[in-house]
């Protein structure tokens, strides 16, 4: 199995190299689009070519699988959605010995977190708009692909809520797709998002003969694509125009955070990709004569462990103290509106900013179905097609493409070889005499004991049974 150079070398270097490879990709794209041009010709020769081309396209049924997080559609969905999220070993990674606690712990944390989450979802209309927006993006992507003469079915597979990835895969099989492009809807790669979705996909692929034989490729991240950078820059430019003195506005990039250990211990390229993405957007804005001050911070942390810094809330307070008066928030890690933009940024951070002395607040909308963005995603899919199923023979070429490509298996192999295990991001305790230690250690110990007891009593397995403290098989008294 080959290794993927982009994930073993520093991501910034890799991206720079990718940008130098445009010519190669342009050639590939031209080659791919040649038969499509023939479709438009009207001579009899061309008609024959057209029927051959159509035949080839019909034999090869192209599918695009969009991967996203998923979100609760009603308030009743919130707790089971949170359970699915926390039951994911890429979100809470327990030491091997304690893996059996994953589900009970997820159950407990989801119950504890649900009231706060429900409040948030209630304030944005009682559920997440993520499914509706992702479905609309899928539909538009299909239309753009068709218009670019690459007819393809587009599927949506969510990680933690409907339509689940398994449901999408079922449809892909039913439709007889032969070539699949996997496209996570996260511009930057993180182990906790695209990585987790790909891990699930890998396990589904492995267990299914049809899927094992289906050719596929993955576009793990696409933050460096010109179309995406330009679309983001245009949105920023438009929002800046709404301020009176637009040149005095601080552009405030706010990205979803991840626990620091993901980056520092597990080699998550998320932070490097995020920083590079911001640099590319600012370079594009500079070309448009926009040279505002800017900053990047990380939002939405969960639990007491350290997450990527600076934190969005701390940064807003600091900027207020430094006398910044106008702020334009740019949600940089999302391509659709959801709780983190509609509630956290629009309500919580805006309120904090106004309290901190910032007088004018604006927010760039998420890209959603913005046509230049979707058209660029369609180009990314088209550019990836020559590499579908060709990873083993030509993965050097694939690495040189504008969209860094890989197969699910190869990507995860690289990650797994680098991973040294992650401390749980939502650890409910902090060891040592830190400020929250007393409370959290106490709670965690109680919870752990409780979970262990419930587990032992219900399953009849565990330490207490092994040590003979509880009888080896426990029978409930029958009435
Ligand atoms: C780049 C995007 C995201 C990263 C990275 C990410 C990491 C991450 N998230 C949690 C915990 C929660 N995330 C929740 C919602 C949520 N997260 C993302 C994106 C990223 N998460 C999105 C798009 C959403 C919203 C979906 C929606 O319903 O609209 C939630 C639930 C909401 C809440 O209670 O705050 C949790 C919990 C962790 C622990 C993590 C990294 C390890
Ligand atoms: Fe999240």
TrEMBL record:
It is found in: Plastid, Chloroplast. Its EC number is 4.98.1.1. Pathway: Porphyrin-containing compound metabolism; protoheme biosynthesis; protoheme from protoporphyrin-IX: step 1/1. Signal peptide: none annotated. GO terms for cellular component: chloroplast; mitochondrion. It is an enzyme of class 4 (lyase). One of its GO terms (molecular function) is ferrochelatase activity. Keywords: Chloroplast, Heme biosynthesis, Iron, Lyase, Plastid, Porphyrin biosynthesis. InterPro entries: Ferrochelatase, Ferrochelatase_AS, Ferrochelatase_C, Ferrochelatase_N. It catalyses: heme b + 2 H(+) = protoporphyrin IX + Fe(2+). GO terms for biological process: heme biosynthetic process. Belongs to the ferrochelatase family. HAMAP family: Ferrochelatase. Catalyzes the ferrous insertion into protoporphyrin IX. This is Ferrochelatase.
